[in-house]
């Protein structure tokens, strides 16, 4: 299936990515984590997105699942982008941002939480394709703390998108 022509600015994301990174926040100890992200498409002008992470021990072995999120990435005119993400913890986020070459910067426009969700107020994400790796950094404002670093990772493409 051909990729919708509107997706050209973000088509570099397509595929399955795996790697590792570091998480931390004032409410938790820093730790290493593993991650898999899958960007797909169905021929329409959006990418599907699924991410799952797990805690890693000192040897890099999986210890337990951490977070998961799913959503859609929609490119807009003039390389603007909208991203809708849902989390099983009762949080839904809408990000807006811009694509500049192989760099994507996103900031939350809307955060909605269920009554049982943790206190989460804002996010800022930066993605970039660097020497074939998908690098990203994620800042968040949560649990009464201002926007600050939460996670960063380097992911390698390990597979193409299978329709």
Comma- or semicolon-separated keywords:
163 residues, mainly beta, Lipocalin, ten-stranded antiparallel β-barrel, 10 strands, 0% helix, 68% strand
Question: How do the helices and strands line up, and which of them pair or pack?
Answer:
Elements: E1 15-25, E2 28-40, E3 47-56, E4 62-76, E5 80-87, E6 91-100, E7 103-113, E8 120-130, E9 133-142, E10 148-159
Structure overview:
This protein is mainly beta and 163 residues long. It has one domain: Calycin beta-barrel core domain (Lipocalin, Beta Barrel), CATH 2.40.128. Helix content is 0%, strand content 68%. The protein is built from no helices and ten strands. The chain has strands at 15-25, 28-40, 47-56, 62-76, 80-87, 91-100, 103-113, 120-130, 133-142, 148-159. The chain has a ten-stranded antiparallel β-barrel. The chain is globular, with a radius of gyration of 16 Å. The protein starts with 14 loop residues before the first strand and ends with a strand.
CATH top-level class = Mainly Beta
Rg value = 16 Å
Query: What general form does the structure show?
Result: globular
Tell me the CATH architecture.
Beta Barrel
Number of strands: 10
| Separation of the first and last Cα atoms | 7 Å
Number of helices: 0
For CATH, the homologous superfamily is named as Calycin beta-barrel core domain
Assign the CATH topology.
Answer: Lipocalin
Total number of domains: 1
Computed structural class: mainly beta
Major β-sheet, in short?
10 strands, antiparallel, barrel
Q: Mean pLDDT across all residues, rounded?
A: 96
Portion in beta strands: over 45%
Strand order of the largest sheet: 1-2-3-4-5-6-7-8-9-10
Q: Topology as H/E string?
A: EEEEEEEEEE
The stretches of 5 or more residues where confidence is low (pLDDT under 50) are none
Q: Could you estimate the helical fraction of the residues in percent?
A: under 10%
Domain THAP4-like heme-binding: 6-157
Keywords: Heme, Iron, Isomerase, Metal-binding
GO molecular function: heme binding; metal ion binding; peroxynitrite isomerase activity
Cofactor: heme b
């Amino acid at each position: 299936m051909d990729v919708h022509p509107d997706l050209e600015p973000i088509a570099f994301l397509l595929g399955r990515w795996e790697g590792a990174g570091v998480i931390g926040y004032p409410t938790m100890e820093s730790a290493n984590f593993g991650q898999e992200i899958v960007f797909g498409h169905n021929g329409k002008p959006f990418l599907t997105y699924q991410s799952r992470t797990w805690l890693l021990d000192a040897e890099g072995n999986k210890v337990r699942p951490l977070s998961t999120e799913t959503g859609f990435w929609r490119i807009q005119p003039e390389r603007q982008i909208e991203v809708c993400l849902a989390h099983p913890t009762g949080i839904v986020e809408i990000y807006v941002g811009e694509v500049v070459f192989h760099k994507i910067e996103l900031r939350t426009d809307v955060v909605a939480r269920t009554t049982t969700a943790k206190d989460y107020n804002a996010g800022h994400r930066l993605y970039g394709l660097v020497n074939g790796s998908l690098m990203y950094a994620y800042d968040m404002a949560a649990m009464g703390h201002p926007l600050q670093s939460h996670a960063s990772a380097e992911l390698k493409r390990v597979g193409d998108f299978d329709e």
